[in-house]
Input
Amino acid sequence: MRALSPVLALVIAIVLGAAMDATIKHLGNSNHILLVALGRYAFGAAFSMIAYAHAGMPRITPPMWRVHGLRGLVTTFAGTGFFWSITVLPLAEAVTYSFVGVLLIPFAARVIAGETLRPSSLAAGVIGFVGVGIAASGAPNASESPLHAWGVVAVLVSAALFAVSMALLRLRAAIDGAPAVSLLSSLVPALILVVPTSVFATPPNLSDWPVFLLMGLFAAAFMYMMARAYAHAEAQQLAPIHYSELLWASVIGYFIFSELPRPQIYLGAVLIVAAGLLAAWDERRLTRARS
Output
């Protein structure tokens, strides 16, 4: 496990994340979305505690609490918004819009972590948003799908918050270590969600408890592998790998939820992915030039 490369760690994380999204979509159809979000983070924290204990329960310092407290707040809003969106949008469509967050990571990393923002990142952002426009074309109207437009808005806001969360992760992952980061990434949002869920959410569907547990297991493993990846590589280097999620989301959406997104989704995704690959190519070119 120690020899696992950052790229392979992130690929594994993306597969686990797609599986987690499928459980969230399933649970969101019969449970309040706040309850689903709380379950994702609470069960994720419980499973993360196992890895944290196995690592010797490394000390969580006040600076860690401050940064991860802020990241947890951002993650809570980003996660809840995305979780709700996949209950009203096809999984592959929601994932396509969420790729905007990958394009925004360099901008967030520039502000938060001091990473250099290059012209290629600006160009990639423009190309990516053109792709979003193409993906949004041909969307069902309000009479056909009253919540579709709100679902798109929720994904885009969530994507922007995701970029901030990933930049904060990059800032602390190498310092704090994967076990602590994985635990705090789930524990802090779970604590934030306890009160609003108690006030607004309806009781859970008891027959769904095994799926809640499965969701937590996927969530803990996803965050652990994500932390390992970002602890050993720059955000801009890893960002394009997130695009592989579209493949898994398409497969899961088709075989589990019988979803077949309209062609514009994949046409837009081509541009968005191309934008990310442009930024990644420029990153590698500059890295070779510096070495």
